[in-house]
Design brief:
- The protein has 80 residues and is an alpha+beta fold.
- The protein has one domain: Trna Endonuclease, Chain: A, domain 1 (3-Layer(aba) Sandwich).
- It is 41% helix and 25% strand.
- It has three helices and five strands.
- A hairpin with a 4-residue loop joins strand 4 and strand 5.
- It is globular, with a radius of gyration of 12 Å.
- The two termini are 16 Å apart.
- The relative contact order is 0.16.
């Protein structure tokens, strides 16, 4: 999983990405409250890491919206 913000940087660590995402979402809500933030997740990461009970509970608890994408085909597979 990577967290990209305007293509400026990537965070490869799954757990650090979660914290940064929440902080970025909070900051964005103050500046542009009408914008919606999605966490982009590659298909294989979604199919493995994001199926863990702990992770699905955290996604639900923190109301994280996901966009699942296929890197090879360069397409968005699903918006959640």
């Amino acid at each position: 999983m990577e967290l990209q913000i305007d293509g400026a940087f990537q965070i490869p660590c799954k757990y650090q990405g979660h914290s940064l995402f929440l902080n970025y979402r909070d900051a964005l809500a103050r500046i542009e409250p009408d914008r919606q933030l999605y966490l982009a997740v590659r298909v294989p990461v979604y199919e493995s890491f994001f199926q863990r009970r702990f992770i699905t509970a955290a996604v639900e608890r923190y109301q994280i919206q996901l966009v699942i994408y296929d890197v090879k085909q360069e397409v968005i597979v699903q918006w959640l």
